[in-house]
């Protein structure tokens, strides 16, 4: 339990972390990944290289320090961390390793004059408190996943039952459990994690479930990333009949129950969770606008299946925006060319009443696209609390 004096020290350290937080966590990750090969497979090396992961953790630590007196205010952030940790199978035994590296990094970055024994003790106590909070929430999530129908704990082998190209760069993998038993249901928008051996190294990656739950199998749809370790391995080395180790579904980017019109907006492979959401929403009567942006027709995945759904379900209207102008005679014309902006989006959204568009909007895609969509939705009068999004990587600020 943190003492009043320790809380005061933590509060006083916040400005220091706000200016030096990222350097601190960059140094921390260098120690952690350099000296503890046992936790390396959990971390995506690309997120380390571009600084996203250190920034995400810096943000986690800062938010905690800012709210040290009322941890309940952390609400969504704690849930987000727990979801990420559970997806990648962070375990209680990992916490002391991370804690020791964090404290060492604080000492080394701040120097002995600032990082006195009292400061280090306060942060050690704070880390323990936060770690216990996360370990408890994570244990509850692991238990829920293990005890629910079709559930399991840790890795479960799945066979690739079918592999299907959806565009020049996206391929779907249909996964069935090797034990032929039912699989855990999930909320549309959630993702599973794969644990693989690539070039003799263990790696883990998250993939959104791209079809609604059916109790027997999962579908994921994967974009080949230039230079990407896992996506290229899956495209080139994993075939029908191969087996993959899968961790249970996780994630908080889920379709909330609502009768409001639903607007799903995606860019590129960001389409995957919106497909499961769309399928599930089509079982209700709510009007749906499905907006998808792609560089061109060649990399536009699932066009035929969305078109077929729109034909079958009058409640669904779909709109496509291609960055590159298509051939004039192509029969796969988009509804707009260029980058999606507020003006185009406004024409595809239900009309505003007194400057408010009472819709639920969900979006996902490359970061610049997400920034633009967030701005546009605000400009078009969609209430902030009715807008939800997720990142295909560590979370970061969009504003
Ligand atoms: C919740 C969630 C859901 C997701 N859902 C999907 C999905 O449905 N479909 C999908 O395709 N993806 C999805 N992703 C992304 C997915 O998890 C992987 O990040 C993606 O497949 C890339 O992994 P990779 O191993 O191929 O690439 P990585 O090896 O991780 O590399 C990614 C990029 O970084 C570059 N890079 C790698 N290492 C370095 C380095 N050291 N220095 C500089 N650059 C480097 C690579 O060249 C590449 O361009 C999701 C991610 C999350 C978090
Ligand atoms: C109190 C301790 C911890 C805090 C405050 C914390 C905080 C965070 C935050 C804020 C994120 C980003 C979440 C997001 O992107 O949405 C994250 C992700 C992650 N954390 Fe932690 N974490 C802690 C402990 C640990 C431990 C013990 C491990 C295990 C070694 C771990 C492994 C990871 C991994 C693997 C990710 C995802 C990284 C990626 O996307 O590459 N964390 N954590």
From TrEMBL:
One of its GO terms (molecular function) is nitric oxide dioxygenase NAD(P)H activity. It is an enzyme of class 1 (oxidoreductase). It comes from the Bacteria. Its EC number is 1.14.12.17. Gene3D superfamilies: Globins, Nucleotide-binding domain of ferredoxin-NADP reductase (FNR) module, Translation factors. It catalyses: 2 nitric oxide + NADH + 2 O2 = 2 nitrate + NAD(+) + H(+); 2 nitric oxide + NADPH + 2 O2 = 2 nitrate + NADP(+) + H(+). Its cofactor is heme b. InterPro entries: Cbr1-like_FAD-bd_dom, FAD-bd_FR_type, FNR_nucleotide-bd, Globin, Globin-like_sf, Globin/Proto, OxRdtase_FAD/NAD-bd, Riboflavin_synthase-like_b-brl. Keywords: Detoxification, Heme, Iron, Metal-binding, NAD, NADP, Oxidoreductase, Oxygen transport, Transport. Residues 153-256 form the FAD-binding FR-type domain. NCBIfam families: PRK13289.1. Is involved in NO detoxification in an aerobic process, termed nitric oxide dioxygenase (NOD) reaction that utilizes O(2) and NAD(P)H to convert NO to nitrate, which protects the bacterium from various noxious nitrogen compounds. Therefore, plays a central role in the inducible response to nitrosative stress. This is nitric oxide dioxygenase. It comes from Variovorax robiniae.
